[in-house]
Amino acid sequence: MSLNDVITLSTRSGIELEVRPANEGDEADLTSFFEQVTDEDRRFRFFAAADRVSAQQIAPLVTADHFRTESWLGVNKASGEIVASGVLAYDDSLETAEVAISVRADHKGKGVGWAMLDFLGKQAQTRGCRKVMSIESRENSAAIEVERDKGFTPESFPGDPTLVVLSKTFG
User: Fold this and answer.
1) At what angle do helices 141-149 and 112-126 cross, to 10 degrees?
2) Which residues pair with 85 in a beta bridge?
3) What pLDDT score does 1 carry?
4) Would you say 127 and 94 are in contact if contact means Cβ atoms under 8 Å apart?
5) What average pLDDT values come out for the chain (171 residues) when binned by 10 residues?
6) N or C: which end of the chain has fewer CB within 10 A?
7) pTM of the predicted structure, to 2 decimals
8) How many CB atoms sit inside 10 A of residue 128's CB?
9) What angle do CA 107, 112, 114 make, to 5 degrees?
10) CATH architecture of 7-130
11) CA–CA separation, 58 vs 102, rounded Å?
């Protein structure tokens, strides 16, 4: 997928998402997006309790190197608004990638997270990645349930009993 490509995904609830790489011009829209994510989901995504996502947290999402890290936006085709953000961050060998997804509060439970997780997994596979993983707070039962439904296997996070690692191996 090139930086100018837009992929259209359909969710189980019929929402059409246009998924594309984030860029520096998306900074203000991403800031607004994260204001519409629940406080709890913001805490789960950034492992910090804050009312807002800082410019320092947005910067890596809009300046991804498109090699070791890629940041995608899911835009509701009908409204033109960002309703999901997803990141893949690869290890040095490019064999394992960590995935992180956020969904706007009013779009939760509509299949947006599922569609983004499928998309990110396929992107990782296309690049030859052998494993995708997610680090979740054990409190984040919704994300853990989605990932388990998508074939991810949970394991304890070494050294931190409040976290769990969910992973899926390809081929």
Assistant:
1) 50
2) 73, 102
3) 56
4) yes
5) 79 96 96 92 77 88 93 97 97 95 95 95 95 94 92 95 95 74
6) C
7) 0.91
8) 10
9) 140
10) 3-Layer(aba) Sandwich (3.40)
11) 13
Q: What pLDDT score does 50 carry?
A: 66
Which amino acid is it at 68? R
pLDDT in tens, 22-39: 999 999 999 999 999 988
Among residues 54, 63, 1, which one has the least CA distance to residue 26?
63
64/53 Cα distance (integer angstroms): 17
Task: Indicate the pairing of strand 7-10 with strand 69-76.
Answer: unpaired
* Residue-range domain boundaries for the chain: 7-130
DSSP reduced 3-state for 98: strand
pLDDT at position 2:
59
CB 155 within 8 A of CB 164: yes
Closest among 24, 15, 119 to 75, alpha carbons compared: 15
The residue among 51, 55, 22 whose CA lies nearest residue 38 is 51
